[in-house]
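Summary of Year 1 activities. Much of the first year was spent building the evaluation harness for sequence design. The harness presents a backbone, in tokenized form, and records the residue chosen at every position. We chose the following record to illustrate the format because it has been used consistently in internal testing since the harness was completed.
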């Protein structure tokens, strides 16, 4: 009886615009991160931009969690909504942690593999944004959502290889004369690689919602 009654009730679709707004902060944060890694902007400016977008994302996350508590009908399982928005928030939180490390260690220049990781972070962010935009019509876009998940997973795998290559280059290069340069560089590589890990978590959340809903 309850399922029949819920089917007659209008769905609470305000979640989708909030998801999209949050996904927009992921793209903006990723672009800011890549700008500072590539030298398009000063590191301090890029870090400030990332922190700004992380604060925006926190506000949106709070809106979503409040809406979950106040909504009688949700577009999909409440637990899935919470897990998705938290995974998205973890992604930009990890960008903020990367920016914090760059600020603390006063890093001004970045290794080629770090720049390459930044490029993949931007690509993954755009893919996540596309996936979030398709959530409201997931049944019509199941194939594309599956393809996006696979592409994000591929980018994360590439990031693992870039991380290892970068660490090896640090060890054989700057690390031979300056151990601190190796330690700091390794920290930056770890943070960047974890951003892709968090994006993979978001993609897997989307995939799980798709499996349950289609």
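For this record, the design step produced the sequence shown next.
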């Amino acid at each position: 009886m309850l399922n029949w009654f819920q089917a007659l009730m209008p769905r609470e679709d305000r979640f989708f615009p909030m998801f999209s707004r949050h996904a927009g902060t992921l793209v903006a944060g990723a672009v800011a991160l890549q700008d500072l890694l590539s030298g398009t902007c000063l590191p301090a400016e890029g870090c400030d931009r990332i922190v700004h977008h992380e604060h925006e994302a926190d506000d949106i996350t709070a809106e979503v969690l409040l809406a979950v508590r106040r909504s009688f009908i949700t577009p999909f399982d409440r637990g899935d909504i919470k897990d998705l928005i938290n995974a998205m928030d973890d992604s930009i939180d990890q960008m903020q942690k990367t920016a914090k490390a760059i600020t603390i260690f006063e890093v001004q220049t970045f290794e080629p593999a770090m720049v390459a990781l930044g490029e993949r972070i931007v690509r993954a962010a755009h893919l996540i944004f596309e996936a979030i935009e398709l959530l409201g019509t997931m049944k019509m876009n199941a194939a594309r959502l599956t393809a996006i998940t696979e592409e994000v997973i591929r980018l994360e795998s590439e990031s693992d290889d870039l991380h290892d290559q970068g660490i090896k280059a640090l060890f054989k290069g700057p690390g031979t004369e300056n151990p601190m340069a190796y330690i700091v560089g390794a920290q930056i590589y770890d943070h960047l690689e974890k951003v892709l890990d968090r994006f993979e978590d978001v993609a897997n959340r989307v995939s799980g919602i798709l499996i349950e809903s289609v």
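Confidence is low (pLDDT under 50) at residues 1-10. Quantitative recovery figures across the full test set are reported in Table 2.
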